[in-house]
Specification:
With 594 residues, this protein is of the alpha+beta class. The protein is built from 15 helices and 30 strands. The longest helix has 49 residues, at 20-68.
Length: 594
């Protein structure tokens, strides 16, 4: 019996093992639903992965385009996405929350500032909303297409983000030109500022005025003197140097012609001022400063006026000290002239020359001039027993800093020849007084820019009056006048690629400077006679004295104007005007940074 049972079981087993087709059919029927589900999932996941990669590429491109058109970044990003067939674009504004739906793409475009400094964490390098913008963040969210597995997996959202940055830069300066050159005045001024005995000819000064110095080559030469190696340009500018060292480096820099090189070498050899000035108060190279010595930025000119740089260095070396120059009788019509000059630090230590982005500011230094002169009288007899004994010109000029702010750099067509740079320039407010100052007897007060000067009537003339047998000498004729030159609103100057290539100087002037400097003051001069108790008819006396005094003062206004203008211009400032020059600019390239 048991033997029969074993044989039956064996026959059944052999039968089952022999029917292979039936087994696979059963297994296929059981596994097929799972296989089809996995295939559908794989197809949709692959599609979503591909769509995510395409969305990221489109987001990157939109960010790069938006950064290239940062003043119209939202429209630039949307146009880029639309041109690349991104469906149903909806722009999400700040504060909004829009949920993407199938066939609709939600995009947000945010401007801000990006810093590549290694000391800043990667997640903090982009600061949304911080101005001036130099970067754009574009985020994109969309529902990807699904073909088979929509009932098997939850609805996914493809989210991508990209940050692109572009740093347009320009190199510009603010100051003033020497429209005419008086070698004697400039020699006396530079000798006072630099120490030593500076004796240059008008031809020498013209050589300096017409020369440009390559700033990077100048810093290279300065690094050799300071024995700095293996450093960046910013490292050199973080150092200090004397004016003599600066003049030597300028002479050794490329761009200095043979004539200007000889003049600079002469100045360097005779300058005895040992004050070391912070070089970053003279020049700010911005991001170019990170280049190593000897490296040059591609397609970017970095030049500066030789006379402008020398004048700015001399002013910084002087600091807030007073310089006094006795010009004697060298000014036509004046028998003696004493010139006192005080120079303040530029606001926030702003350099006069800078390489920077939108928002960069350069300023001149605040300057005070006190000119005390005696006017030649000639015939002193005014008739009626009245004689002029002396006529004085106590002139005070104070010019606040002039300012130039880089407001825009653009390349509308994307090509270098379409480059435009906008500078908002504002001349320094000037106050002028023909009067006595409370700081006349204190050099420290004169050089103290933290306290404003106060003015009062000064002795403009002294007269003698003969009454019968009595002669009254030294009667004081006192008076004062003032003039304010203001410009409350900045003026925008636009430089195109031709202006930049030609290093064109553009000037912004105050709106109410319609007359010459001292003529305006003299015409408003109010005089009085100190003759109390002497029984004189003051009205009659003034009627004789005032026309004579005003005539004499009017006769010296032209040379005095020329003197003041030359001195201020040599220091990089001007009454009622500011000269701006852009010597290099680039719109840069928009690059993906995150």
């Amino acid at each position: 019996m048991s033997q029969f049972l074993l044989r039956g079981i064996g026959r059944i087993g052999r039968s089952m093992l022999g029917d292979v087709k039936a087994n696979f059919a059963v297994m296929t029927a059981l596994i097929a639903p799972f296989a089809l589900g996995l295939a559908a999932f794989a197809v949709d996941e692959g599609s979503i992965y591909t769509e995510r990669r395409e969305a990221q590429a489109m987001t990157d491109l939109a960010a790069i385009t938006a950064a290239s058109n940062i003043n119209n970044m939202e429209a630039a990003a949307v146009t880029t996405l639309s041109d690349n067939r991104m469906p149903g674009i909806i722009v999400q504004k700040p504060g909004q929350t829009i949920v993407p739906t199938l066939g609709k793409t939600v995009v947000s475009v945010t401007g801000g500032r990006y810093s590549a400094a290694a000391s800043v964490g990667v997640d903090k390098r982009f600061e949304a909303g911080k101005t001036p913008y130099n970067a754009v963040r574009v985020t994109l969210r969309k529902i990807p297409a699904r073909y088979f597995a929509s009932s098997l997996i939850p609805t996914p959202v493809v989210g991508t983000e990209a940050i692109a940055s572009m740093t347009p830069q320009a190199m510009f300066s603010v100051g003033s030109r020497l429209l005419s050159v008086n070698g004697g005045i400039l020699n006396a001024l530079l000798s006072g500022l630099l120490g030593g005995n500076i004796s240059l000819s008008v031809m020498d000064y013209n050589a300096l005025i017409s020369a440009d110095v390559n700033v990077l080559s100048f810093i290279d030469a300065l690094a050799v003197q300071l024995q700095l190696t293996g450093v960046t340009y910013s490292d050199v500018l973080a150092s200090k140097a004397t004016v003599g060292q600066i003049a030597t480096a300028m002479a050794n820099a490329s761009g200095s012609g043979s004539s200007s090189k000889l003049v600079l070498q002469t100045i360097a050899s005779r300058a005895t001022n040992t004050v070391k000035i912070p070089l970053n108060h003279l020049v700010d190279l911005g991001s170019i400063g990170s280049l190593g010595l000897g490296q040059k930025p591609a397609g970017f000119s970095v030049d500066a006026s030789a006379m402008g740089m020398l004048g700015a260095a001399a002013a910084l070396a002087n600091g807030s000290n007073q310089v006094q120059v006795n010009l004697g009788a060298t000014i036509p019509g004046l028998t003696s002239t004493t010139l006192s000059i005080a120079i303040g630090e530029p606001m926030q230590y702003s350099p006069w020359l800078a390489v920077g982005e939108k928002g960069t500011v350069v300023r001149t230094a605040q300057t005070r001039i006190k000119l005390v002169a005696t006017v030649g009288i000639g015939s002193s007899n005014l008739g009626g027993g009245i004689s002029l004994l002396s006529v004085n010109l106590p002139l005070h000029v104070e010019v606040a800093y002039a300012e130039a702010k880089l407001t825009d750099i653009s390349c509308p067509t994307g090509r270098p020849e379409s480059l435009k740079v906008s500078i908002a320039a504002q001349p320094g407010v000037a106050s002028l007084h023909l009067a006595a100052s409370d700081a006349d007897n204190s050099s420290s007060a004169f050089a103290d820019f933290s306290n404003p000067q106060s003015f009062s009537d000064a002795t403009i003339a002294q007269v003698s009056v003969k009454l019968l047998l009595l002669t009254l000498n030294l009667l004081d004729v006192k008076g004062s006048s003032s003039l304010a030159i203001t410009n409350n609103d900045p003026t925008t100057l636009t430089f195109d690629s031709t202006d930049i290539a030609n290093k064109t100087i553009k000037t912004v002037a105050t709106k109410n400077l319609t007359q010459s400097l001292t003529t305006s003051l003299v015409s408003g001069l109010s005089l009085s006679v100190n003759a109390l108790g002497l029984g004189l008819d003051v009205t009659a006396l003034l009627g004789t004295v005032k026309p004579a005094v005003v005539t004499l003062l009017n006769g010296v206004t032209a040379p005095v104007d020329a003197l003041v203008y030359n001195v201020l211009a040599a220091l990089g400032v001007h009454v009622g005007e500011a000269d701006v020059r852009v010597v290099g600019a680039t719109c840069g390239r928009s690059v993906l940074v995150q």
